[in-house]
Amino acid sequence: MERFKITKKVSILGILTNLFLFVIKIVGGLIFQSQSMIADSFNSIGDVFASLMTFIGNKIASNRDDENHNFGHGKAEYIFSMFISISILVISIKLLYDTIFSLIKGNKVMFSFNLLIICLVTILIKLSLYFYLKKIYEKEKNILIKSNMIDHRNDIILTSGVLIAIICSKFNIYFVDSIVGILISIWFMLTGIKLFKDSYDVLMDVSLDQDTKDQIIKILHTNKFIKKIDDIHSVAVGYKYIVVLTISVDGNLNTFKSHDVANKIENDIVKSFDNIKEVFVHIHPI
Fold this sequence. Notes:
The structure is a single chain. The chain is mainly alpha-helical. It has two domains: 2-203, Up-down Bundle (Alpha-lytic protease prodomain-like), CATH 1.20.1510; 210-285, Alpha-Beta Plaits (2-Layer Sandwich). The protein is 71% helix and 11% strand. It has a three-stranded mixed beta sheet with strand order 1-2-3, covered by helices on one side. Helix 8 links the parallel strand 2 and strand 3 (276-285).
């Protein structure tokens, strides 16, 4: 499928670009003793891991339905996005500890135009990747692409903070470097929590949102044979949902007509929603 080919391309691109950024950031941060740059470099290595998890999760999710996985392997996207979120949380806690320790010790940043260049290169690369992934996500609605897109957006903001800290060091204002490092760590942590929640919701079979349910009800009300809508249940299977409807129809309808009503409902709903994989209709005669 085109969706999985695009995600594979995105993951490989992410691994290569983030490895490059990690190397130049960690070298620059260590040479010039910039705690915020070092923190940002670990952010990049976290992004490498995220891209790797995207690659693996996408490969598994792309497998077709089989005898043991009747609804496909779509939840692999959310399992691996949860791995990404956990790695983000672990790294953010370690960075927060190191940066606070650096602030207490009073470490000073050595100003260098090389650090400024590293920041500007990072921002330009991340801007390009962010808008590229944003366009793809709007089309594909893949949580793995979304997690990478959010990473790129965060990196733009965080590296801009590092840039400010480096400029401040030029004027002997050193504490800003550690403050920015702390803010980077906290931002990283909040991103991990948000991604964890998104993944957790799907893995715990969160139902369709109320707006989608209301739209389904509108479609059902257009069918003159439906006398009552009893239940609407749904379960996530990857990025799409299985919907189970229980409806009541006129008890005088014959079996053939009842099945015809059910088939029409199933087709209408699947055609109307990109995030619904399949619909099952259970009919009660009244």
